[in-house]
Design a protein that fits this description.
The chain has 274 residues and is of the alpha+beta class. It folds into two domains: 135 residues, Mog1/PsbP, alpha/beta/alpha sandwich (Protein Transport Mog1p, Chain A, 3-Layer(aba) Sandwich), CATH 3.40.1000; 130 residues, Up-down Bundle (Four Helix Bundle (Hemerythrin (Met), subunit A)). Helix content is 34%, strand content 32%. It is built from eight helices and 14 strands. A seven-stranded antiparallel sheet has the order 3-4-5-9-8-7-6. A four-stranded antiparallel sheet has the order 11-12-13-14. It has a three-stranded antiparallel sheet with strand order 1-2-10. A hairpin with a 7-residue loop joins β4 and β5. α3 crosses α5. The longest helix is centred in the middle third of the chain and has 22 residues. The radius of gyration is 23 Å and the shape is elongated.
């Protein structure tokens, strides 16, 4: 299946979902995806971890306890499938439900569609489910930025806006000229060398300005071992917010975000010209 890759927080599992779907906010432990332009249904997935064989046991249990559930095969996966109808504001919907078991993980998947709506999109996603083995080293991957990292980016940026307002009594618009204000805060010495989160927020803010100012720069989520973090991508170049501020402070080096920004811009321009 062609599409976007999703790797869950904690890297328990991965799946491929349609290119025109995006991730949206849902309840804790549940991940929601749908097409925001042409709504074809809400796909939700939750994963639960147990002992060896827990996945298949969860499917057996669902078949035993849910009289309406039947055993179906999606790709190579055996699932307990059921459906339920409901009405909302005069419109009838069907929620298609699958309990899927792989190794020590059980997945609850649902696809809510207008009555009579097609479920092939959801089945295609479920067929791509893969459990990532604990202890195995996977190659680093860039995937579409997850909601978790979007929250992190926004939190870092909002900290910078608030800090600039507090120190300079000036607004922060997220444009290149604001780097001087950010540098003023750094030079004031009010951010201690051990304040990792605040230095990371500075790196994220510099990257947010880049994303605002430079066309073609995109946020991605980097999954690299235990590290799951937002980074910027421009063609084949990756810009890591951590290296813009925190890595320098940790190494006892000065942090100059204006110079860092100029260096990145030069790399981008060079890349465009080659």
């Amino acid at each position: 299946m062609q599409g976007k890759k999703f790797i869950s927080p904690g890297a328990w599992f991965s799946m491929i979902y349609p290119s025109d779907w995006n991730e949206f906010e849902d309840g804790e432990g549940s991940f929601l995806f749908y097409n925001p332009e042409v709504w074809t249904g809400n796909f939700r997935i939750s994963a639960f971890k147990g002992k060896v064989g827990y996945g298949k046991e969860a499917v057996r249990q669902e078949l035993k306890e849910n009289e309406t559930a039947s055993l179906v095969k999606i790709g190579m996966l055996e699932c307990a499938y059921s459906k339920e109808m409901f009405q909302e504001e005069g419109t009838y919907y069907t929620s298609h439900l699958w309990m899927v078991g792989i190794d020590d993980l059980a997945f609850e998947c649902s696809f809510t569609v207008p009555k009579g709506g097609d479920v092939k999109e959801a089945e295609a996603v479920i067929a791509t489910l893969e459990v990532r083995k604990e202890g195995r080293k996977y190659p680093a991957e860039l995937i579409p930025v997850r909601l978790l990292e979007i929250y992190q980016i926004n939190e870092g940026y909002e900290w910078a806006v608030s800090k600039v307002k507090q120190e300079l009594k000036k607004d922060f618009q997220g444009v290149e000229e604001d780097l001087e204000k950010l540098q003023y805060v750094i030079d004031s010495g009010k951010i201690g060398p051990k304040k990792k989160d605040e230095w990371l927020a500075i790196g994220l803010t510099v990257c947010s300005i880049l994303a605002n100012e430079v066309e073609g720069v995109e946020w991605k989520t980097l999954i690299d071992g235990n590290r799951e973090t937002p980074v910027l991508q421009y063609h084949d170049q990756v810009i890591d917010p951590m290296k813009l501020a925190w890595s320098k402070i940790k190494a006892g080096q000065p942090c100059n975000v204006i110079e860092e920004y100029k260096t990145i811009l030069n790399l981008i321009i060079t890349n465009q010209l080659t």
